[in-house]
């Protein structure tokens, strides 16, 4: 819409009285037209709102979630549960969150026993409001019906908590939990106290398959004799600073297929001796997986007389109490334990001292156990006891994890608790160059390198070309490299 005043727009021009009257006359009918259009828009909005109000509830009636079969809805609900830990009593997480969506979902969730089959029970949280939360725990576990239960009990209390919960409150809580012990399949105990241990003493757990004990006094497990001898118990994990007491525990060792015996990195006195390791393995002939924290100062020179054959052992993980491990000790373990089916081996950075015959040799491990598929190690310094040029000794290797950082203890460090970290600048490059030859670890599919530095991109491209484009069914499928710049 043109006007003879168009060229005046955006200027400081002041119209005359005649021009003002002309402009007002021109705007009059246009203003009326604008008001008419606004009224039409308002009426259309009203019509739209009425139509939307009619459509939305009817669309909801025919929505897909309403027509989901109960078994599919259960699968979706189960996928909403947290992974890596048990469910908690929080309205912000499943399953309680699912009960707040709508009445239909609440009814569905409450009718699904598997949705309530896991629960984390922190003592401090429950006994803060015992009259409300203890019955809630019982109600939760009741909803699980006959489902196998996965429970985690945590007794860790805040020292300055006021008032501290009474022993009667704690005992009452775990006595309530113990009522459901026939359904326990997995039990995790963290920082449990003697009160809790006594409350759980003598309980019947016919379905218990896995037991985990973390950060507590192992002597409390003397109350768990019946629990630790459950007929289905197959996996036990013990993490404590009292590992020397492990062999004396009343556990059905002969049934176990998985055993973890480890301690925090708080000194060598809390770990377990080679003699006790051999004793444990002799008690566990069915073991398939074994993870252990050996002692660092176990000068057991008559290890030649110790031996055990683990016919079913496929996984052997050595986790040291400190960052550096004596090579001769690892050599002793490898010498004393025969593992003909070994497929996964993880060991720390080792330092060889003493005579050559007592030193750890990665090449000899590969020759002794040709079935190893998964190997985790340190590349170490150039004179490392695990030189990368021995990888050809592992023809069946499909997964390799290498830490390119090596650790050197400071001088006059009597306790070995203070470490100076030095990165091996050539370790990563040596590894890549070694694996350029596809005859070395020909089945390699996964490679993970940690603490890498100064890796030339051209070497990496050459490596990928060699490993990915190789005409073989065992091409490299996964490469993960974490770099350390500091």
TrEMBL record:
Gene3D superfamilies, per the entry: Ribonuclease Inhibitor
Parts of the chain that traverse the membrane: none
InterPro entries: LRR_dom_sf (IPR032675)
PANTHER family: F-BOX AND LEUCINE-RICH REPEAT PROTEIN 6, F-BOX DOMAIN CONTAINING PROTEIN, EXPRESSED
Name this protein carries in UniProt: F-box domain-containing protein
Taxonomic classification: Eukaryota, Fungi, Dikarya, Basidiomycota, Agaricomycotina
């Amino acid at each position: 819409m043109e006007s003879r005043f168009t060229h005046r727009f955006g200027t400081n021009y002041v119209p005359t009285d005649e021009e003002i009257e002309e402009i007002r006359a021109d705007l009059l009918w246009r203003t009326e037209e604008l008001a008419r259009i606004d009224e039409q828009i308002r009426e259309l909005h009203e019509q739209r709102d009425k139509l939307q109000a009619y459509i939305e509830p009817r669309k909801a009636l025919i929505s897909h979630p309403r027509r989901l079969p109960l078994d599919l809805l259960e699968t979706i609900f189960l996928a909403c549960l947290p992974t890596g830990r048990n469910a908690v009593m929080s309205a912000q997480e499943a399953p309680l969150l699912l009960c707040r969506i709508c009445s239909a979902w609440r009814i569905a969730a409450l009718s699904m026993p598997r949705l309530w089959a896991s629960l984390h029970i922190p003592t401090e949280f429950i006994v803060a409001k015992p009259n409300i939360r203890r019955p809630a725990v019982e109600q939760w576990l009741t909803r699980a019906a006959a489902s196998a239960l996965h429970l985690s009990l945590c007794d860790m209390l805040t020292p300055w908590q006021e008032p501290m919960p009474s022993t009667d409150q704690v005992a009452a809580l775990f006595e309530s939990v113990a009522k459901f012990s026939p359904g326990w399949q997995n039990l995790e105990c963290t920082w449990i106290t003697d009160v809790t241990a006594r409350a759980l003493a003598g309980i019947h757990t016919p379905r218990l398959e896995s037991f985990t004990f973390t950060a507590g006094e192992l002597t409390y497990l003397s109350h768990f004799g019946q629990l630790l001898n459950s007929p289905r118990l197959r996996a036990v994990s013990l993490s404590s600073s009292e590992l020397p007491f492990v062999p004396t525990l009343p556990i059905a060792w002969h049934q176990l297929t998985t055993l973890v015996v480890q301690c925090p990195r708080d000194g060598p006195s809390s770990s377990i001796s080679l003699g006790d390791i051999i004793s444990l393995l002799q008690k566990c002939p069915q073991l398939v997986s074994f993870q252990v924290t050996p002692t660092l100062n176990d000068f057991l020179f008559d290890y030649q007389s110790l031996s055990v054959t683990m016919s079913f052992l496929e996984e052997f993980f050595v986790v040291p109490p400190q960052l550096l491990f004596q090579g001769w000790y690892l050599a002793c373990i490898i010498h004393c334990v025969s593992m003909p089916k070994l497929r996964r081996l993880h060991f720390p950075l080792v330092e060889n001292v003493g005579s050559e015959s007592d030193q750890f040799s990665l090449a000899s491990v590969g020759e002794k156990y040709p079935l190893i598929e998964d190997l985790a190690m340190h590349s170490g310094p150039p004179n490392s006891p695990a030189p990368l040029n021995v990888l050809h000794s592992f023809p069946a290797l499909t997964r390799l994890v290498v830490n390119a950082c090596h650790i050197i203890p400071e001088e006059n460090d009597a306790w070995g608790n203070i470490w100076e970290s030095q990165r091996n600048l050539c370790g990563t490059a040596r590894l890549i160059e070694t694996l350029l030859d596809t005859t070395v670890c020909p089945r390699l599919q996964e490679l993970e390198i940690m603490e890498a530095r100064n890796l030339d991109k051209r070497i990496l491209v050459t490596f990928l070309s060699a490993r990915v484009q190789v005409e073989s069914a065992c091409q490299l499928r996964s490469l993960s490299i974490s770099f350390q710049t500091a």
